[in-house]
Amino acid sequence: MFYLFSSVSMIIMAFTLVSSVLSLGFTLAPYVTALNARLGDVVVISRSWFGPITRSQAALALFCVGVVTSWMVTGHWFLNNVLGISLCIAFVSHVRLPNIKVCALLLACLFVYDIFWVFFSEQLFGSNVMVTVATRQTSNPVHTVANSLNMQRISEVVVKKLDLPLKLIFPRTFWDVSSGNFRSQYLMIGLGDMAIPGMLLSLVLCFDHRKFREHDNEGTFSRGNKYIQFDGCGYALGMIAALAAGLLSQAAQPALLYLVPSTLGSILCAAWARGELAELWSGPRPIVTEKTSFLEP
């Protein structure tokens, strides 16, 4: 991405458009299904490549395409964040880790990875690789096509450059009082800083759910005393620390430098205090069934 971004930007844009539509539809589908359970739904297309298509599915598809199209036309940071969050939700929902051991190894490697590319890459490559890649914008294909076809009205409305929804961006200040202009400085956080700790939250949430089912009849597992609460608080504290460090230092900060200790550390300490560290570390034990020999009567 640092050396070949301009060469592969259109390929990345094509994958981004398709994955954004699918991810946004995946994120909103449960809410549409719950709404249809109350209001009812009808099939509008009985035969298609995707199978029968209902009215709500067609409306959801049109809505997702409309949101992505609006993002391409305006390049607004809010629409960018909506698509980025949907991509993150789809990733965490489909990629699952078996236990904390694998997640801890992944977080430890990414912890070193993030620190190196933010703090030490400039000494080797002459530029901060992480910041350079994160702040690069790609050419808007709609503007490119409209400009090549001499469609002046469209090219004037559509933005020339787009921030890919691979990060969340937030304006530092919405209005510069001194100049009266909209400021273009943004706070950024990569989707990896959300998705990877999000996999840890998903893992401990599944662990909480399994422990509750196992001890529900015994009454030994309290609803108000779950690992997801420790991990959620740790993530919030780590994010606040990363934000404060960025604002105070006025420099890019590796978010995983703060998120990994606050999330993984809080979970491991809580599990050790409860005596469940071994179970959480290695995952649930496989169910062993007795094998019956065919030679037995």
From TrEMBL:
<feature type="transmembrane region" description="Helical">
    <location>
        <begin position="186"/>
        <end position="207"/>
    </location>
</feature>
<dbReference type="GO" id="GO:0098553">
    <property type="term" value="C:lumenal side of endoplasmic reticulum membrane"/>
</dbReference>
<dbReference type="GO" id="GO:0030660">
    <property type="term" value="C:Golgi-associated vesicle membrane"/>
</dbReference>
<dbReference type="Pfam" id="PF04258">
    <property type="entry name" value="Peptidase_A22B"/>
</dbReference>
<dbReference type="GO" id="GO:0033619">
    <property type="term" value="P:membrane protein proteolysis"/>
</dbReference>
<feature type="transmembrane region" description="Helical">
    <location>
        <begin position="100"/>
        <end position="120"/>
    </location>
</feature>
<keyword id="KW-0812">Transmembrane</keyword>
<keyword id="KW-0378">Hydrolase</keyword>
<dbReference type="InterPro" id="IPR007369">
    <property type="entry name" value="Peptidase_A22B_SPP"/>
</dbReference>
<dbReference type="GO" id="GO:0042500">
    <property type="term" value="F:aspartic endopeptidase activity, intramembrane cleaving"/>
</dbReference>
<dbReference type="GO" id="GO:0006465">
    <property type="term" value="P:signal peptide processing"/>
</dbReference>
<comment type="similarity">
    <text>Belongs to the peptidase A22B family.</text>
</comment>
<protein>
    <recommendedName>
        <fullName>Signal peptide peptidase-like 3</fullName>
    </recommendedName>
</protein>
<dbReference type="GO" id="GO:0098554">
    <property type="term" value="C:cytoplasmic side of endoplasmic reticulum membrane"/>
</dbReference>
<feature type="transmembrane region" description="Helical">
    <location>
        <begin position="228"/>
        <end position="249"/>
    </location>
</feature>
<keyword id="KW-1133">Transmembrane helix</keyword>
<keyword id="KW-0472">Membrane</keyword>
<dbReference type="InterPro" id="IPR006639">
    <property type="entry name" value="Preselin/SPP"/>
</dbReference>
